[in-house]
Every structure is written in C-alpha cells, then in structure tokens.
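WARN retry 2 of 3 for item q-0093 after timeout on previous attempt; input resubmitted unchanged.
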Amino acid sequence: MNILNSLSNNLLYLTYQGHEVAQHAAENEEKLGDVVLHHIGDTHEFEIFSLKLPLPEFEFFGIDLSITKHVVMLWLAAVLVFLVFNYGFRWNRMVPKGKLTGFFEPIVVFVRDEIVYMNFGKEGKNFLPFFLTVFFFILFMNLLGLIPFMATATSNVSVTGALAAVSFILIHFSGIMRHGFFKHWRNFIPPGIPWWIGLIMLPLEIIGTTGRSFALCIRLFASMTAGHMVILAFLGLIIVLHNIFVGLFSVPAALIVFILEIFFAFLQAYIFTFLSALFISMTYHGAH
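OK item q-0093 returned
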C-alpha cells in the first residue's frame, strides 16, 4: 500500500505541475523545462509546489561549496544508512528481530554471499562493510529520487564520478596492501613476456582500470537519468500536444515506467556494487 500511495502521490504531483505549466505556458515557457528537470536537476533551492526554500551558497578559496539539492539528498541517504544499520541491526543477534531488520536482512545476506564472497571468498569479510555501505547508499539515493519534491543524486555525474573514484582508489590500494607496492604493478604484466612489451602493457592496464571506473560512473548516471526522463516525457505529451485524451496512454505508460524505476533502483545499486567488487578482486588476487 505504501508503494501504491507513493506512486499515486508522485503522479498527482507531476500532473499538478503539468497543469500549471499548461495554463501559464504562454507567459513563461521555461516552466516546462523545470517540470522535466525536477527530479534530476540540481538547484540551490527546494521547491514544494509553489514554496521555494533557498539553500546556502558560499565559496572557499574560489571553490564553490554551496549546498544544493543533490547535496541534501546525499546527506539524507547517509543518514538513512546510519539509522538502518545502527538502530535496525544488532550484529550480536542470531535471529533478525523486527520488521525493519527482517526486511533488510535478506538483502545484506545477498550482498555478502552473491557479491562479496563470490568475488573474494572468505577473505571478503574485511571488505563487507564497504560494499554494504556502497550498495545501500546508492539504493537510498535512487529511491529518494522517486519521492515527490525530492531529487535523484545519482543523476548527477559528479556524484557517480565520486563513487567511481572511490572504487578506483580501492582497486589499487587493496592490491598494494595485499602484494606490496612493486608487486602490485608487476601483477599487471603477464610473466614470461619481454620487458619492453611489459613497459607498453603497464600503462595500458592502468588506463584499462581507469576506463572500468569511468564506465561505473557513466552507467549509473545514465541509467538513473534516462528513467526519469522517460517518465516525464510521457507526461509531457499531455502538455506538448494540448490534448487531455493523450493522458489515457501517457499516464499508464508513465506508471509502468515508474514501477520499473523502483526495480532499476535496486538493479543499479547491485550492478555498481558487483562490478566494483569484481574489479577490486582482480587486483586483490593478482588476476587479469
């Protein structure tokens, strides 16, 4: 019932926004863009219907450190991760207690067994807190973007780029801690090949690990942006075509895509976490 209520509230809100834009399109065409970018755009204010709450803007030595909507979403997601695992779980419990723990416990076990232990074996126990944090942090950011008046922080390439950068650092840091500094870089070169080929392969392998991290960034960013754009494009047909009967097709289509967005919120968190674990384990175990 909570999911259905969220669906209906989100669609009602978007319909309200679309109706407002249609009425005043002749006066201010930019409002149409505001509706489309509501859930994926980063702004310096929170907009709830006609109420706009400004967020602080400031610089530090020429660096823009302003609080934006996506920054607030990052904070909310971090708080949710902290609350869920600090108060919803007690790791000394042998059996999950409570609805909250009972809901998240199978997900935690799935991440442990099907992502971490699958790639690292039992040695992955040391990496488990990191990957659980990454998975649920991305998941909560994705789900927050489906709530009215909120925004999807993972539709910001700076956010996904920072997450990918953390994975890139851990790819090499884990290898160095496991094998030592020089042995880590030698692991990128297959044994038995001429030294001059090794000199060519090493930078190419480093570029390859950078490309994998870049792919993590773009995949999450593009997936979460595209889903919202499809939903809002369907609803925007009512405004663009100025025909209420178009809604008989576009609203059910948007509802279907919205339900799929809930699935993709989990899927993209899984894909990012799994690929990060795979790339890190390749250097941790010295494999190619």
